[in-house]
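Re: beginner question about structure tokens

> Can someone show what the tokenized structure looks like for a real chain? I only ever see the sequence side.

Sure, here's an example I had lying around. Input first:
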Amino acid sequence: MSIRLGRVEKYLIKRLEEDGALHIPLIDPENVSPEKAVEIGIIAERGGSAAIMIGGSTVASIVKLNEVVKLVRENVSIPIILFPNNLSGISPYADAIWFMSLLNSLNPYYIIGAQVLGASAVREYGLEPLPLAYLIIGDGGAAGYIGQAQPIPYDKPEIAALYALAAQYLGMRFVYLEAGSGAKNPIPVEMIALVRKTTSIPIIVGGGLKRPDAVEERVYAGADIIVTGTVIEESTDVEKSIHLFVDAVKRGFSRRCKRQM
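And the corresponding structure tokens:
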């Protein structure tokens, strides 16, 4: 029986087919005001970002999350995808949710327990679940701490590749390599390249991506979706920042295509 993809997943796949690689900003309701979140969303859509992710490692206020998601939803037309840290990261006002399993957690709760508890809410709210394998790399920042992860070392790309391959064989349709919000160093290009060589599902990369050239190199290495959070939230010129990152994604994919010719 063939897998029936939802509207948002079809949209992401179509954008990947058309553009090659995508940029998505991450908005953490704990870090920005609802007004700032709306500003980022509007500028991101206008600047060519494919979707808006909302969530974070320490989101605890469901009221604040709902307020931000609802306001952004009212002002943008691209999909809003929840990036939950726990059950408190589920909102009925979004389009979809990364239905994610932190595969290298030491606590079964973050591998399957939270997903069992949250599944009924996802169905009740009519959210589209996007099956995703979440992997913490390096120290992983707050995400690694909260998720009780056994982080994959930066210099062990083969471990990340095996996790990603296992995720693909388990039926997950995306894999997220996470260095952690505000990480000092982003995911190494060697790790991305090996995961790309080993798997065929879309690779999402986030954490520590502060410069356009770092984004370009990771798309060139094989990343399909680049997520930037802290650097956008803290920017004094959001429009310029979005523009620089979207252009960097395009350059990285263009270089990848030339290499494959």
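Each token stands for a local structural state, so reading them left to right follows the chain. The first strand starts at residue 22 and ends at 27.
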